[in-house]
Design a protein that fits this description.
CATH topology of the largest domain: Rossmann fold
Distance between the termini: 21 Å
Order of helices and strands: EHEHEHEHEHEHEHEHH
């Protein structure tokens, strides 16, 4: 039996955010129509991940819909899985990855980012990768790695900055950028969907702010990439689900 893909997102107090996540799940289903795909949330939004895992029959692969490591990736989500579906295989978080880089570049272009002038007559727009942030240094390093990938893609420096925990803050990164020669400062939104943190980026004072990653074929492909990678890990075997789940019943 092909395992069910369970997309595990954080949750938010935003109907728009939830709508984007639902649409992304639909895009993931469309990529592999024969597979079963479910979406669950760690908190706030419904359905809760614990409830989804409790009712899904057969083997399960959980893909964290998280752009970096941190508490939710390493503590919160594994605890929910251990409590409700210890038989499940947990994939790695989404970022950093070149597919995310492609989406970021397209979102910036749509927002109006100008390509660098190869003749050197006009300085490049400065780009900041704006992320939510974390108290986990490893999660901040994941975002900085994503900024390096975007820097290579755009052929210009890209600094990572954070809207909540982590340094530099978006405000600090903007202040540094304004001290340079760049005609404009653009913020690439390293966020899955609109909501509280994207609102912070929009009001940061940047000359342009890209849309969140949102619903995109490359993002859907990345979800399946993490699914496939989890199943291909050496020593990974997807066990049959416990009897209660094999029957599709709630524990």
């Amino acid at each position: 039996m092909t395992p069910t893909l369970v997309m595990a997102a954080h949750g938010a107090r935003s109907g728009h955010w939830e709508s984007v996540m639902d649409s992304l799940a639909a895009r993931v289903r469309r990529a592999r129509p024969a597979a079963r795909v479910e979406l669950g949330f760690l908190e706030i939004s419904a359905p809760l991940l614990a409830d989804v895992l409790s009712r899904v029959p057969g083997p399960v692969v959980v893909v964290p819909m998280l752009l970096a490591g941190g508490y939710h990736a390493h503590i919160d989500l594994p605890a929910v899985v251990a409590r409700t579906r210890p038989d499940a295989v947990v994939a790695g978080q989404l970022g950093p990855h070149r597919l995310l880089t492609s989406v970021l570049a397209r979102r910036l272009a749509a927002a109006g980012l100008r390509p660098c002038d190869t003749g050197g007559l006009r300085p490049c727009d400065t780009v900041i990768l704006g992320a939510a942030g974390s108290s986990d240094p490893a999660a901040l390093d994941d975002v900085r790695a994503a900024a390096r990938l975007l820097s290579v893609r755009l052929s210009r420096p890209v600094a990572a900055a954070f809207a909540s925990a982590g340094t530099p803050t978006v405000a600090e990164a903007l202040e540094r950028a304004r001290a340079g020669l760049a005609p404009r400062v653009a913020v690439a939104s390293y966020l899955l969907a609109p909501g509280f943190f994207h609102d912070r980026l929009l009001t940061s004072g940047a000359d342009l702010v890209s849309a969140p990653l949102g619903v995109d074929d490359d993002l859907a492909a990345l979800v399946w990439t993490r699914f496939d990678e989890a199943l291909a890990r050496p020593g990974t075997a997807v066990p049959p689900a416990p009897a209660s789940h094999a029957a599709g019943t709630r524990r």
